[in-house]
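Hi support team,

I submitted a single chain yesterday and got back a structure, but I'm not sure I'm reading the token output correctly. Could someone confirm the output below corresponds to the sequence I sent? I've pasted both exactly as they appear in my results page.

Thanks,
R.
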Amino acid sequence: MSDSIKKNFIAGHWVDGVGVNRNINPSNLDEVVGEYASADAAQAQEAIAAAHEAAPAWAQATPEARSDALDRIGSEILARKDELGRLLSQEEGKTLPEGIGEVVRAARVFKFFAGEALRITGDKLASVRPGVDVEITREPEGVVGLITPWNFPIAIPAWKIAPALAYGNTVVFKPADLVPGSAWALSEIISRAGLPAGVFNLVMGPGSHVGNAIVKSPKVRAISFTGSVNVGRRLAGDAVARGAKIQLEMGGKNPFVVLDDADLGIAVNCALNGAFFSTGQRCTASSRLIVQDGIHDRFVAALTEKLAALKVDDALKAGTDIGPVVSASQLEQDLAYVEIGRQEGARLAFGGERLERATPGYYMAPALFTETSNAMRINREEIFGPVASVIRVKDYDEALQVANDTEFGLSSGICTTSLKYASDFRKKSAAGMVMVNLATAGVDYHTPFGGRKGSSYGSREQGTYAREFYTAVKTAYTQA
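Hi R., thanks for writing in. Yes, this is the structure output for that exact sequence:
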């Protein structure tokens, strides 16, 4: 295998794969970002065996050793934010400012968990029995398998890898095939952070081989997956069947409610950001804009005007507001849903067509539908592209009912100047995260992330809540 091909990292060594994955720039299909080794199930098993062998010693490593390693990783990511951000935007298609911002977030995640590694707490309770002490501690699960998506190719790996290592677990990491570049660059930084061999392993390759090997291995005690609903549910069945712990982050069909009393400028900017930035390729995107009748027409007119001013172009070009869709299949899906919306009777108020630019790429004009109902497929199914629908409602009660009428429950938002409605929505929204006068997309790195219903399964990611997944609770009794 050529020296230019980026290799997998197993048991402390860079190793060739069984094939090669060519990473193509969605802004310029003539440009190859790089070539990356593709592993098979046998190599995934080698990585799992290495992680299993390294697990006992790493579980006993001092909190300071873990903290120092994570801090070194975070510091290098931060120092190289421009370089890594450019790579991210080049392979995934989000704009350069968004790419750099995601890299900074990944760095902050590692630094946050460098601190958390020093704060692994327990409890000491008085027993109901005389002369007995009770101590509750947290221990690492062991080998964890981390399977990550293409839409946040460094932030999501960071918020899985960092807590896994902080709490003393060993890692087998499988990134999405579409975006191996950011995953490899992150792994290369981790490989030089002073971790013992086998503690961290990178295995790039198709989910049908690598992912399945991770999920079905009896040596992998916990699996954290972010991706599609169908794949997540299948993985859950495999994991639960053998008693493994599993954490799933899947789809969203997030509502953003705009009431008559809302500040129109804030409402439009929140909708624009939440629905269309990052090319709409966020599980927290505002794909359903639920707008009260009194402000509806002004909102649609103002949002359409903003959409017309957006620049869709190469992700690396200065001034680009929206980059390309990530892949041919994703673009095909987005355009298919635009046609589905038309066939359902929705009015295409703006965009929805494929665009041509100076370089061949997966460019699409952001699409806005009006005159839609919540029963339409475009309002029931996750599109995962720059497509949003406006649903007109008569009052707050109807807005709340429509917002909650979905199989998903990741993020929701409301724009209002009423403390009464804001407070009620925070309480009654059936979502894991609620935003008031903010876009539904965009969360802090030190707070819990996750949803309800079909969006998430298992304990929350990020912040101190991550310990629930990456540790096991032990209760010990001692007779004095």
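A quick pointer for reading it: Residues 269 and 439 are 8 Å apart (CA to CA). Let us know if anything else looks off.

Best,
Support desk
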